[in-house]
Amino acid sequence: MPAVDRLRRLASTRGRRLRDSGLPILQCALAAGLAFLVARDVVGHPVPFFAPIACVLVLGVSVTNRLRRSVELAVGVSVGVAVGDLIVVVIGPGWWQISVVVGLALLAALLFDVGALLLNQAAVSAVLVATLQPPGTDAAFSRWIDTLIGAAIGLATAATLPSHPLSRARRGLAALLEELGAVLTGVADALEAGDGDAARAVLERARATQGRVDALADAVDAGFEITAIAPQRRRHRGELARLRTAVPAVDLALRNARVLARRGDAAIRDGEKPDPDLIAVLRRLAEAVGVLRRELTTGESTDGARVALLDTAAEVPAAGGGYSAEVVLAQLRSMLVDLLGATGMDRDEAVAAAARSRPEHPRPE
Fold first, then answer.
1. CATH number assigned to the domain covering 167-357
2. Any keyword Membrane (predicted)?
């Protein structure tokens, strides 16, 4: 069964990747053909292979919808081709000429104070110019023009036909919160049954979420970049701002969930008998996470999730029922504060609200 679950998660991941990238890939393919058509039939260059190359390099990165990287690649390709054209026309092709071309292309790119991506692309483009096409004044000039055409069409496509800025962010957040709910439910089930194997499986599942958190933060930033270049998408900036606020809080909640799952496993290995109320509140928190997932990913108000989380806090027991169970209880309380923060509540306010919601239990005489 674990193998079947892994296969299902793998299929789900691949399907999600296809949904995220299908439209950008189609745009990239069509834009590359358009770049070739413009350079050949409009500008009149017989074999403008640098036009589709530049377009693919620019838009290929835009599958992840990161504008800055696309611009860096466009500049890198243009700088590399320009330097390669100018130098090879003067000194001709050859092994030492390639060394000179690469060195000068990197130096030229460094003048723009750019990152490694642009530097590498400038060097690669210079090498292509120096080796793939015989030098000549007319050819050199046309190669640089072709590069500009391809890069311009790539950037224009990214700006005028952007993917929806919220799609990837919402799907990523929904998947993370679904995982969080599953971890909470899985820990509760394992503690109730005393099943160490199930507890370890839940722990591995919790540990596998960090990559998704990083991808979610990247998707939110990418969404903001889309709204910056695409006027028709700017109305989504408010929703993206809400998701940007939620991402760090969800990240903290998942980190606490990993500790919670680890201590749940330890509680079972140590033979502890957790308080049944602790198991019940874990399940109730999982339900509240489901409410939060629905509201955050549909643009609804998070008032319902906030109420559900506060109601859950009111049911937190005073004791866990063992050393590791006490750690589980402490992590659960921390998660409540984190998730209240995901609803937009200030952290200090969330701590105070969670504390007020917990009832005072009289100590035994």
1. 1.20.58.220
2. yes
